[in-house]
Amino acid sequence: AEGMPRPEQTRIMIVANQKGGVGKTTTTVNLAASLALLGSRVLVIDLDPQGNASTALGIDHHAEVPSIYDVLVESKPLSDVVQPVRDVEGLFCAPATIDLAGAEIELVSLVARESRLQRAIQSYEQPLDYVLIDCPPSLGLLTVNALVAGAEVLIPIQCEYYALEGLGQLLRNVELVRGHLNPTLHVSTILLTMYDGRTRLASQVADEVRSHFGAEVLRTSIPRSVRISEAPSYGQTVLTYDPGSSGALSYFEAAREIALRGAGVFEVPESAPGTG
Ligand code: ADP
Ligand code: MG
Fold it and tell me: Which structural domains are found in the chain, ordered by start?
């Protein structure tokens, strides 16, 4: 839609931050829905045993549902577990079930334990413009599988005290995986989440993040919004739950920025609240 560029090759984005509650899952599902609404084909891979991304996309993920666990541990083809997301054309999800909690341990003894997700994605035959991987809040083998599977790391940062604390560890892991397993890996995108422009703290954190990372930080930040936090309990993203809300508009704008940056365009005209 709207002449947004679609990537020539599938862009695989790993949404990671080992801190919990910073907006990884919220960012994964809402950016994915936005990119699909912009006309792309998008797959969300839920790699968190909590299955919050599956829930937020309205995807059944009770224990018997074929899931990303079967792909990683049982070598089931990804196409056997992918489900379409209702209400959003072009959006798909590989759900996580509670089984995935055991995978961190079960993977240890398997061959190619770090590259099982990469192989599964490479063998997937349906065309995709984007794969967004929602990581658990840890740096174990599940997250390593994600870091091996794609080139781009997207880090959501909550505009709070200690926002940058622990990021060093994630960045070192990115370096390690880049050095040993995946030379294409890099931090491509930083997104400021739960931004409250009325507080000095939020703007201080935003300044700190921008001076630390620079060009990787999206110009659009995501405001704190009740509509964003309500949507998952209806099995919806905010893009369908309340399309006119500031939360929906800001995720849509962030997705536009991501699509344009992928096409080499960094100067995105401002057009939505939550920008700047
Ligand atoms: P993570 O996946 O990093 O643990 P979540 O995406 O689950 O983080 O977000 C943590 C909590 O914060 C959830 O309850 C979510 O609904 C809420 N939340 C995330 N982003 C926003 C936002 N922009 N405004 C309001 N609440 C948000
Ligand atoms: Mg999460």
Answer: 11-262 (3.40.50.300)
> What does the alpha-carbon distance between residue 143 and residue 125 come to, in Å, rounded to a whole number?
23
Q: Write out pLDDT tens, residues 125-164.
A: 999 999 999 999 999 999 999 999 999 999 999 988 788 8
- Could you tell which of 24, 26, 167, 227 is best to mutate to test the pocket of ligand 1, judged by most ligand atoms within 8 Å of the CB? 26
Cβ–ligand 1 contact at 220 (below 6 Å): no
What does the pLDDT look like over 221-230, one tens digit per residue? 999 999 999 9
ipTM: 0.99
Instruction: Give Cβ neighbours of residue 267 (< 8 Å, ≥ 6 apart).
Output: none
Q: 0.90 cut: is pTM over it?
A: yes
Question: CA-to-CA distance for 96 and 153, rounded, in angstroms?
Answer: 20
Please give the distance, rounded to the nearest whole angstrom, from the Cα atom of residue 225 to the centre of ligand 1. 10
Identify whether the C-beta of residue 94 lies closer than 8 Å to the C-beta of residue 7: no
For the Cβ of 68 lying below 6 angstroms from any atom of ligand 1, the answer is no
| CB atoms near residue 51 (< 10 Å) | 22
Start-to-end CA distance of the chain, whole Å, equals 24
Distance CA 34, CA 172 (A): 30
Q: Which protein residue has the closest C-alpha to ligand 1 atom 17?
A: 229
CA 22 to centroid of ligand 1, rounded, Å: 6
What are the backbone angles phi and psi of residue 206, rounded to the nearest 5°? -60, -45
